[in-house]
Amino acid sequence: MAQPLAPNLSSEGEARLPGLLVVTGLSGAGKSTALRALEDRGFETVDNLPLSLLTHLLETASHSRPLGARPIAVGIDTRTMSFDAEAVVAKLAALRDGGLNARLLFLDCTGGELIRRFSETRRRHPLAPDRPASDGIAREREILEPLRRAADTLIDTTGYSVHDLKAAMTSRFGRSGSGGLTLTLMSFGFSRGVPRDADMVFDMRFLQNPHWDDALRPQTGRDVPVGDFIARDPAFAPAFERIADLLTVLLPSYIREGKAYLTVAIGCTGGRHRSVYVTERLADHLRAAGAQPNVIHRDLPQRADSAERRSERADAEDKAGSETLTAGLSH
């Protein structure tokens, strides 16, 4: 039976929502998606005002917002007229000194992923309209560095789908006001990289892989036959119990230390079978213990595309090596 966790383990975000949230980051990192998600959560949102009007809005928010009014989310980036990163940082500091709960969210992303996104959408980078996108990304990263350093919250969207970013915004800026630790369980595939914002990572590639069963390959870790296959692996139960017990022990300690967010990432090769099943089982275990984890399956929407097929050779080598090791240990 799962041991009860501390009562303030939450999936709904901040104990005290910001009266003002400034959303910024690299072009292509998801600012528009983040603002739409905030609007869905009850924020009043505005994007890309000239800096002079932005300053007026911030001053108005600090002096005339009635108690209980909807929080404001303002999007700014290098396209904003008269943009000055240092000036934005200074204005936010002044607003905080004046008593406004003002916070800064920075959306980051790797250069390679941003180049891919610009290529797929056929958009030009705003700072490199007639040059390679990489030039604009490098320049923009330099310009935005003061905001990145000053950010209260940083979200790396490199491995995120639109759905994942919306879920991340909901978990951090939901309007329940319950406070506590926001726990996210994320399945992923090593073939697409380890999540950059993971606090803890567990590798499930030691389990037998349903990918090699033709009947199970098209299914996912949410399907009963796949779950039964994984659960029958003699290595599953003892490993799962130890991971679950470890989290049950650690989470109350993180809460006592005041940690606001914890992301636990569970990986396998493609992110569709073993990691998904274990993530769902861990979520059930922690809910029974009183937690309300957010669950994100980062790579579940992906099918067995060319990138995943390229990973099959590595997975086959892992499988062969595991069989050799098992045979050696049995003698």
Corresponding CATH architecture of the largest domain: 3-Layer(aba) Sandwich
Look at the structure and give the CATH class of the largest domain.
Alpha Beta
Q: Can you give the mean pLDDT?
A: 81
**What structural category do the secondary elements indicate?**
alpha/beta
Pfam family, one: RapZ-like_N
Region (Disordered): 296-331
Organism: Pacificimonas flava
Binding site for ATP: 25-32
Structure, explained:
- Helix content is 45%, strand content 16%.
- Strands 1, 7, 8, 9 and 10 form a 5-stranded parallel sheet that branches. Strands 3-4-2-5-6 form a 5-stranded parallel sheet, sandwiched between helices.
- It is globular and about 65 Å long.
- The chain folds into 2 domains: 17-173, 3-Layer(aba) Sandwich (Rossmann fold), CATH 3.40.50; 181-330.
- It has 331 residues and is an alpha/beta fold.
- Residues 20-174 form the RapZ-like N-terminal domain.
List keywords for this structure.
single chain; 331 residues; alpha/beta; Rossmann fold; 5-stranded parallel β-sheet; 16% strand; disordered C terminus; RapZ_C; nucleotide-binding
